Amino acid sequence: MTASLDLNKKNNIVVEIKGGFGNQIFQFIFANYLKEKGFRVKVNTRFYNQFEKKNTKIDTFRQLILGEEFFDFKNISYFYFKFLRLNKKINESRKIKKILKEVKNPIYIKLKDSNFSAELLNKKFIHLDGYWQNIDYLISEKEFLYKSLSKNKILENSFQNPRIENSTMLIVRRGDYVDIDEDLGLDFYKNSIDYLKSNIGEFHLEIFTDDVKWVKSKNIFADAKNIYGPEEMPLKVIDLFGRMINNQHFIIGNSTFSLMAAFLGEKEDSIVLVADPWFRKRDYGNLTKDNWVKIKNV
Fold first, then answer.
1. Edge to edge, what strands does the sheet with 108-111 contain?
2. Which of 118, 192, 218, 262 lies 20 to 30 Å from 31, alpha-carbon distance?
3. Which residues contact 60 (CB under 8 A, 6 or more apart)?
4. Dihedral angle sign, alpha carbons of residues 30, 28, 19, 150
C-alpha cells in the first residue's frame, strides 16, 4: 500500500473500471480507499462500451457485473471523459513534448500500477488506469466490500447460506492464460487435491472453469461433484460467484475471480490454497494472505 496520502484532498481522481469481475472489485475498493483518505473520487466504466460493437478488437468479452451505484460511486460525465482524453493526448504528443521539453502538464496526470506513487497525486485532475491488485487493499476495505456486494440479493444469500461440510471450490482458468503461458500445470492441481485429502480426508469438489472439455478430459478431476462453465451475462456471473463463495475450502490457483470468492467466503475452519508464484513469468504483487497455503507453480 502507499506509504502516505497526506496531500491536497481537493484533487479530483478518476479510477478506470475494466476487466473481469475480480479486477472490477479491486478497482472499486481502491477507489474507496482513496475516497476514505479524503480525495474526491469518481469512476469511468466506458471500457465496456466497446463490447457493444461487433468489430471490437479485444478477444475476451467483458461486461460490468455490478454498477458503480452498488459501491456508492458516480460515473464521470461525457464532458469529463472528453477532458481526460484531451489531456492524455496532450501529454503523449511528441510535438508538444518537443516544444515544451521539460515542462509538464500542470493540472493533469495519468498513472498506472507501474508508476503509481502517492507523491504524484498532487495534480488537480488525476486519472488512474490500473488494476491495483494488492491483498492489503482487500483487507483494508473488507467491510466496505461486504456491504457493497450485499446490496445484491443473490450475493447476500450466499454470504448467509450454510455450507456443505468440506465443500471445496477449485478454479481452472485456461483461455487467455494458455496464450500467455501462465496456465497452471496438472501438478499444481494434483498437489492441491492431495494436500486437502491429507488434511481433511474426502471432500465435495466443485470445479469452476472456462474450459469444461479440458477439465473433463483429465482423470485428476474425475471426482468432481459439479463442473461449472464460464458465464458472461452479469446475472449469471453473480450466480456463479455466489456458488463459489458458498464453499468451505478454496483452491484459487492464480485467478483474481476465485481469490475474491475465497476472501469473502473464508471462515476460521477454511483452507485456502494459492499458486506460488502467482505467475511464473511476471511479478504480480502481493495477492496472498498470511494464513493461505502456497502450492508450487512450476
1. 40-44, 12-16, 125-128, 108-111
2. 262
3. 20, 175, 176
4. positive
pLDDT (tens, 9 = 90+) of the chain, 298 residues, equals: 544 555 555 799 999 999 999 999 999 999 999 999 999 999 999 999 998 876 666 667 899 999 999 999 999 999 999 999 999 998 888 777 666 666 688 899 999 999 999 999 999 999 999 999 999 999 999 999 999 999 999 999 999 999 999 999 999 999 999 999 999 999 999 999 999 999 999 999 999 999 999 999 999 999 999 999 999 999 999 999 999 999 999 999 999 999 999 999 999 999 999 999 999 998 888 999 999 999 999 9
- The beta-strand segments (E) located in 18-135 are 40-44, 108-111, 125-128
Q: Are 29 and 137 in contact (CB under 8 A)?
A: yes
The CA distance from 51 to 59, in Å, is 10
Amino acid at 190: K
Q: What is the pTM of this model?
A: 0.91
Angle 229-239-275 from CA coordinates, rounded to 5°:
55
Question: d(Cα 9, Cα 107) in Å, to the nearest integer?
Answer: 14
pLDDT of residue 228: 98
The domain defined by 155-296 carries CATH number 3.40.50.2000: yes
**Cell 478518476 -> residue:** 14
Are the CB atoms for 280 and 199 separated by under 8 Å? no
Are 265 and 149 a contacting pair, CB within 8 Å?
Answer: no
Backbone angles phi, psi at 48, to 5 degrees: -80, -10
C-alpha grid cell, residue 172: 481452472
C-alpha cell at 218: 483429465
Q: CB burial class (10 A; 0-12, 13-18, 19+) of residue 156?
A: middle
Q: Which residues contact 138 (CB under 8 A, 6 or more apart)?
A: 26, 29, 145, 263
Show the cell assigned to 217: 478430459
Strand partners, 172: 209
